[in-house]
Amino acid sequence: MRNFDLSPLYRSAIGFDRLVNLLESGQTQSNGGYPPYNVELVNENQYRIAIAVAGFAEHELDITAHDNLLTVKGAHGDEPTERNYLYQGIAERNFERKFQLAEHIQIKGANLENGLLYIDLERVVPETLKPRRIEIK
């Protein structure tokens, strides 16, 4: 029997309670793991994504959310820079990173600090979906 490593699925899905939702989405990422990122569980209903965007200014980053899909794009300006590298280990290429979000996940804000882009998320479950106690009379 084959063993399947499902850890890549957990890295890009935030707020899912069931793996079935992610498998049904069929969302794939083919960006080769650039830029690196972390997904942090702050508390039961709050998450934080940290993306390493060294070399990008705020105006070169674009964050959009549409239909439970969070997209982060980084694009440098079209100004060519002539540099003579002896060694280039810092990637400066444009990127697009997508995250599939579960229902009821809301983006609370984003900030750029020390080369890391932080995106704060929160799960907000409507009152109608929360369990409620029924009194017996």
What does this structure look like?
It is a single chain. The chain is mostly beta strands and 137 residues long. It has a single domain (7-129), classed as Sandwich (Immunoglobulin-like). The protein is 9% helix and 38% strand. The protein is built from two helices and eight strands. It has a four-stranded mixed beta sheet with strand order 1-6-5-4. A four-stranded antiparallel beta sheet has the order 2-3-8-7, with no helix packed on it. It is elongated and about 80 Å long.
Summarize, please.
The chain has 137 residues and is mostly beta strands. It is built from two helices and eight strands.
Topology:
Blueprint: H1 7-12, E1 13-14, H2 19-25, E2 37-43, E3 46-52, E4 61-66, E5 69-74, E6 95-101, E7 105-113, E8 116-123
Parallel strand pairs: 1-6
Antiparallel strand pairs: 2-3, 3-8, 4-5, 5-6, 7-8
Highlighted features:
single chain, 137 residues, Immunoglobulin-like, 4-stranded mixed beta sheet, 8 strands
